[in-house]
Amino acid sequence: MNSKYLQEDKLLLLEITEEIDHHTTENIRRKADNEITRYMPRKVIFDFNNVTFMDSAGIGMVLGRYKMMKMLGGSLEMINVHPSIKKIFEMSGILKICPIKEAV
Hints:
alpha/beta; Transcription Regulator spoIIAA; 5-stranded mixed sheet; 3 helices; globular
């Protein structure tokens, strides 16, 4: 996972560079949490451009980061979500709280 922090916008962009399944979520979660606590951004954006597969563990990972940002008074969005992954998010209902936006 790559990260980029834009200080003037207090925006943390997290680019996921691997598939998201029960084997990889712990590593992604740990890296995301470290970057969030390091920068304390107002907004986190997950970039799913390189993610072609995700299982239900990914929903939990996104939901956990959403809750963390909500506790910190911030927000979470997603960009570049492939149609197959968007369908998983739609079925889970997570898009009601974590929207998919156009690329930054």
